[in-house]
What we know:
By secondary structure, the protein is mostly helical. The chain has helices at about 1-20, 30-40, 45-75, 75-80, 85-95, 95-100, 105-110, 115-120, 135-140, 145-165, 175-190. The protein has 2 domains: about 1-65, no CATH class; about 75-190, Nop domain (Serum Albumin, Chain A, Domain 1).
Amino acid sequence: MDDCERVANELAERVAAWAGSRRPDAGAGIEYARELAADDDADPALAALARRVRDLDEEAAALRTRVERAAPEVAPNLASLAGPVLAARLIALAGGLDELARKPAGTVQVLGAEEALFAHLRGRAPSPKHGVIFTHEAIQSSAPEDRGSAARALSGKLAIAARVDHYSGERKPELDAELADRIERIQGRETE
């Protein structure tokens, strides 16, 4: 899904650049590629590339739908806490749910930030506060100075959720409530 989205966006940039050299009203992005794909007056080669962008975008959407349907079945607690797409990304980055369940919370926190972590270990950068979990609403909605705390709280609950999903598969709604309470306390520090 991520690969389809990335390639569709890259090709949409090429479509926009190519169309911009031929049409004064050229737009940009995937939506413009969709318009060009349906335009009968467009250059045939340009329209063919635009159709590829459209097809990749549709494939990414179909894969997202599949992930959103499958993740809650495979990892109900993780999908509930992280959302189905982020849960799937974490499972993929870890190498499977069993591998994710064995990882400590600190590792879950920086999954996807390996380059930054290795740069830190070589002494060339500060330690990363988060990896792919940065896309989670709890971190996005936190003040920049509180994002590290929010990332630690989130990764701790995600690690527990992965273990529960792997070892028992039983849904534990109290994890959702505990995370919401912890994030609320972290974000409440802003107003104090």
